[in-house]
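Service request form, structural biology core

Requester: graduate student, group of Dr. S.
Request type: structure prediction, single chain
Budget code: on file
Notes: please return the result as structure tokens.

Sequence provided:
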Amino acid sequence: MYISSDGIILKQIKASGGRKMMTLFTRNYGKISVGSSLPEKGKSKTALALRPFTYGTYELYKNGDYYNMNSADVKKSFFRIGEDVDKFLYASFAMEVTERLIPEGIPQEEIFDALIAFLEQIEDRAKSYQTIVLAYEAKMLKLLGTFPQLDQCACCGAAENLSAFSVKDGGMICDECRKKANETLIYDVKFDIVDILKYFSEKPIDAFEKIALDAKIAEELQSILREYMNYHLDLGDLKSDSIFHEKI
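Core staff response, request fulfilled:
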């Protein structure tokens, strides 16, 4: 059966005989594994569609759970991301997080649209790339239904005196529960994490075009979200982790 869908290649692995195995995030079918023998060298539309940070239309042959890519065409190439080292590193981190967190074979159109918007925004930004990465991460957690509890204590349900973020408990905790806790993954936040995360999760990605968090706040918030995703979503080690954290 032949099928077609817009998509973004999240991951590519070289195989024998010139073939490639790709993780393709499609609008219609979600995340799928696809084999391909299409050439990726040259300036053809097919070759361009196989490169990183390209939004394309892909024609696939489906046989059971197996997909093979027959053709590819570019809808939009975010080539300027690759011209800036910092942009490339932050965008690579976001793509790897996406590949790890979204489930296989389940359409995620809102996350797909958010990823396109993220690529558009980071390509156009001149600085503060981490802010747009954080906005995308918050949006993705919200859409996946795994957003942290921010309005009340994740332990006792109290709505007052929320002063710390507990990774293990999945959100903000109150002063009393903080005194009783003995685990290490607790952050005594010194900024308004609740308002920032809510704003990031509720607004469209393009709303952050002119917004830039203070670098120290962005770094602390990234540490919190990274630990949160690792604990609750088993994000694990990322290839982009070491390089990314050198930049933040």
